């Protein structure tokens, strides 16, 4: 899981235009919740949040957060998780993030450290698929998404369409069966 910003023009007609402004990036934008599988395919999208929202705030307002039990398998000792970056701290119920060195006790034994390093390495490898999937879609449809401003309600539909087309292109390249 990750959030991604899509730059937009400054919404002149919207009196609440500041909520679309992301101060960290100094741009007006939409923020979007995106889940990409291990093959780089989009499996969940919730687009159109204000650019001032942090990734975890977008997640908390999305359907997947409200209905997470219907999206994940949870059986006697088995549970499915999403892999997320450190920005999703506090959402440990269904998101696993890498283990930071500051979270490891000083007296941890070498076997624990080895297991944590192995998990972090695996986590980083799968997270690359998320970043590449999002980056590939944004490169392909950059012109399409750039022309929006916050007064347009069609952005979520266009973002979803771009993700579906990206999946189609990716499956064709990988010779997947649809």
- Rounded mean pLDDT is 85
- Given helix and strand content, the structural type is alpha+beta
Q: Find the count of extended strands (DSSP E, 2+ residues).
A: 8
Largest sheet: 4 strands, antiparallel
- Shape descriptor reads globular
Helix percentage range = 25-40%
Provide a count of the helices.
6
**Separation of termini?**
23 Å
Regarding quaternary structure, how should these chains be classified? single chain
Extract low-pLDDT stretches.
none
Features:
178 residues, globular, 4-stranded antiparallel β-sheet, 21% strand, alpha+beta
Q: What does this protein structure show overall?
A:
40% of the residues lie in helices and 21% in strands. The chain is of the alpha+beta class and 178 residues long. It has helices at residues 55-61, 63-66, 68-71, 110-140, 142-146, 155-174, and strands at residues 2-7, 21-22, 27-36, 42-50, 74-75, 78-79, 82-84, 95-97. The strands form 3 sheets. Strands 1, 2, 3 and 4 form a 4-stranded antiparallel β-sheet that branches. Strands 5-6 form a two-stranded antiparallel sheet. The chain is globular. It has 6 helices and 8 strands.
Briefly say what this structure is.
This protein has 178 residues and is an alpha+beta fold. The chain contains six helices and eight strands. The chain has helices spanning 55-61, 63-66, 68-71, 110-140, 142-146, 155-174; strands spanning 2-7, 21-22, 27-36, 42-50, 74-75, 78-79, 82-84, 95-97.
How would the blueprint of this fold be written?
Blueprint: E1 2-7, E2 21-22, E3 27-36, E4 42-50, H1 55-61, H2 63-66, H3 68-71, E5 74-75, E6 78-79, E7 82-84, E8 95-97, H4 110-140, H5 142-146, H6 155-174
Parallel strand pairs: 7-8
Antiparallel strand pairs: 1-3, 2-3, 3-4, 5-6
């Amino acid at each position: 899981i990750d959030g991604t910003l899509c730059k937009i023009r400054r919404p002149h007609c919207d009196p609440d235009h500041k909520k679309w402004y992301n101060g960290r990036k100094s741009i007006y934008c939409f923020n979007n919740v995106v889940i990409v599988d291990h093959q780089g395919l989009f499996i969940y999208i919730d687009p159109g949040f204000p650019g001032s929202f942090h990734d975890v705030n977008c997640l908390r307002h999305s359907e997947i957060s409200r209905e997470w039990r219907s999206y994940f398998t949870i059986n006697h000792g088995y549970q499915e998780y999403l892999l997320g970056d450190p920005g999703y701290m506090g959402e440990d119920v269904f998101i696993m993030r890498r283990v930071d060195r500051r979270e490891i006790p000083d007296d941890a034994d070498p076997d624990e450290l080895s297991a944590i390093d192995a998990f972090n390495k695996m986590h980083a490898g799968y997270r690359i698929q998320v970043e590449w999937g999002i980056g590939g879609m944004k490169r392909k449809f950059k012109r399409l998404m750039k022309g929006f401003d916050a007064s347009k309600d069609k952005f979520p539909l266009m973002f979803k369409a771009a993700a579906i087309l990206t999946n189609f292109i990716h499956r064709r390249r990988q010779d997947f069966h649809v």
